[in-house]
Specification:
- The protein has about 260 residues and is an alpha+beta fold.
- It has two domains: about 5-75, no CATH class; about 95-260, no CATH class.
- It is about 25% helix and about 25% strand.
- The chain is built from eight helices and 13 strands.
- An eight-stranded antiparallel beta sheet has the order 10-6-7-8-12-4-1-13, with helices on one face. A three-stranded antiparallel beta sheet has the order 5-11-9, with no helix packed on it.
């Protein structure tokens, strides 16, 4: 990192720490959930789609059917848009890889040269120990991405925990300058038991702006790979983790584009 880049990162870190992130996000969330007049909806959503690169051809439903921006953010896909790969491990969402591959014991790589403690992310020492030595995929969902999250594997959903926190942005610039960002943000942790007995988890990390996370899966349910777990209100991040053994998340380069339900092996 050059001296100039270091100064920019330090300034960004200072601004992000001082920003009233939760209050601003709650305000934005209220605005995003406000109903829009039906005649204005197509124009508003088309403008958003052009700005953020939304693929409207993949969307199920008419633009006028979404009552608010928040509803449009969580739009469903048309049937067949994401065929489920015939493998035991698939990507849980659309987005771009932040990091992916083996865990370092009980630590997860946030970006190259920076990691954090797994137990801090999942909020459970026993679960962290059960996941130690496994593999993970951290995926960033930009505002224009499909914002529903699905099970990357088949298993029993044993528990869902809501963990409090702040709402840092989760874009690459913020992730690169805020140490331990993901465990500091509010998040939902889905604790799974796979058919082979291994532990696994999916963490939906909320983010600055809207900050909403909606859980749609029922605790105690046996879910197939590809079944819906929850929905984000805006750009966010998913961390999917499986304990040691096979199948495992393959190493993937930062920035690699992935699609929900495609093979993650």
């Amino acid at each position: 990192m050059t001296a100039d880049n270091g100064v920019v990162a330090a300034l960004r870190r200072l601004v992000l720490n001082l920003l009233p992130k939760v209050a601003l996000s709650r305000t934005t969330g209220l605005l995003a959930r406000a109903p829009l007049p039906r005649q204005l909806r197509p124009l508003v959503y088309l403008t958003f789609a052009r700005r953020y690169g939304v693929l409207l051809t993949e969307m199920h439903g008419e633009l006028g059917s979404f009552r608010s921006l928040a509803a449009f953010f969580q739009r469903p896909l048309r049937p067949g848009a994401r065929p489920l790969a015939a493998v035991p491990l698939v990507w849980p969402c659309d987005g771009r890889i932040v990091t992916a591959g083996p865990l370092r014991g009980e630590r997860i790589e946030q970006v190259k040269g920076s990691d954090y403690v797994l137990a801090d992310l999942v909020g459970d020492q026993a679960l962290a120990r059960a996941l130690a030595g496994g593999s993970q995929a951290t995926i960033y969902l930009a505002p224009g991405d499909y914002h529903r999250v699905h099970a990357p594997f088949a298993g029993l959903l044993q528990a869902v925990r809501a963990l409090p926190g702040t709402l840092f942005p989760v874009n690459p610039a913020a992730v690169g300058c805020i140490r331990g960002l993901f465990p500091r943000n509010a998040r939902h942790v889905f604790h799974f038991r796979l058919g082979c007995g291994r532990s696994a988890a999916v963490v939906m990390v909320a983010a600055f702006n809207v900050g909403d996370t909606t859980v749609t899966a029922a605790t105690g349910a046996r879910l197939a790979a590809g079944e819906e777990l929850g929905r984000f209100g805006f750009g966010s991040t998913v961390v999917a983790i499986v304990g040691a053994g096979e199948p495992a998340f393959a190493a993937a380069a930062p920035g690699q584009r992935v699609h929900c339900a495609a093979a993650a092996l």
